[in-house]
Design a protein that fits this description.
Strand content: 5-15%
CATH superfamily: NAD(P)-binding Rossmann-like Domain
Number of strands: 7
CATH class: Alpha Beta
Shape: globular
Radius of gyration: 17 Å
Number of helices: 7
Largest sheet: 7 strands, parallel
Distance between the termini: 45 Å
Structural class: alpha/beta
CATH architecture: 3-Layer(aba) Sandwich
CATH topology: Rossmann fold
Order of helices and strands: EHEHEHEHEHEHHE
Helix content: 25-40%
Strand order of the largest sheet: 3-2-1-4-5-6-7
């Protein structure tokens, strides 16, 4: 398989956590990847987000040139369109997209949650997925194998369960599930598919922030919420995402893969 025959995937939230693990997994299996992150650092949320240095580390780990970095905020559709165009100019195609960029905010009851927290979650976690789909689906459908095009959004166990003091995050992740179901319906007849992967408590900087919102000293307490009785590893979620990105992943369409270790809050 030549470089231009390889499947090409755009991944948002690629600098760390599940997004970074997904980039590594896809690159290791022969994919070409546009690794997208806002690299907002201290300014992107109530807690520090990933930096350009972290994104570069992910890209540099794939030294064969299979991954390129693109700085883009998922709230900016034009920036995501430029990222999708980067895939086309670099490799001539875009076959799949993974919307992994997200933030978390909360730590209070619904009626005490600041409106700015709800706005942030809606703009990044929901509209960010919407913008990623809007930017990536058209070039995917115009590509050489549109019937194998895949759109995968990272939802959350919070898209199914109600979580204490995280009502705004619950609302956002429920919306991601609804968005994917609607997109899958829009793709009927194309062969392209859309699905969501819902992780449970996974060892990421976002989970560390969740622990801080709950006043916990570390993330290990979250293991009690999962039947496997451990915190999940990002590579485990990435394996599920990679399958959903593959031609074989077309069986997962308009649905949610509960990659949550048996989440039971």
């Amino acid at each position: 398989m030549t470089l231009h025959d390889s499947r090409v995937v755009l991944v948002t939230g690629a600098a760390r956590g599940i997004g970074a693990a997904t980039v590594r997994r896809l690159a290791a299996s022969g994919h070409r990847v546009v690794a997208v992150d806002s690299c907002a650092g201290e300014s992107g949320a109530p807690y520090p987000l990933a930096t350009r240095a972290e994104l570069d580390t992910v890209v540099d780990a794939c030294a064969d040139g299979s991954v390129v970095a693109q700085v883009a905020d998922v709230r900016d559709r034009a920036a995501l369109e430029a990222a999708a165009e980067r895939a086309l100019t670099t490799w001539g195609r875009l076959d799949a997209a993974v919307a992994a960029a997200a933030v978390i905010a909360g730590g209070r009851s619904l009626w005490e949650t600041a409106e700015k927290d709800l706005d942030l979650l809606w703009e990044v976690d929901v509209k960010g997925v919407w913008n990623t789909a809007a930017a990536c689906v058209p070039p995917m459908l115009a590509g050489p194998q549109p019937h194998d095009a895949r759109f995968v959004a990272i939802a959350s166990a919070a898209g199914t369960h109600g979580l204490h003091h995280l009502a705004a995050y619950n609302a956002a992740k429920h919306a991601v599930v609804g968005l994917v179901k609607g997109l899958a319906a829009d793709l009927v007849g194309t062969g392209a598919t859309a699905c969501a992967v819902s992780p449970g408590s996974t060892r990421t900087p976002m989970l560390e922030e969740t622990a801080a919102l709950y006043g916990l000293h570390d993330v290990e307490t979250f293991a009690d919420n999962q039947l496997v009785r451990r915190v999940l590893d990002p590579d485990e979620i990435a394996a599920t995402v990679a399958f959903c990105c593959s031609p074989d992943g077309g069986v997962v369409n308009g649905s949610v893969v509960q990659a949550d270790g048996g989440f039971a809050p």
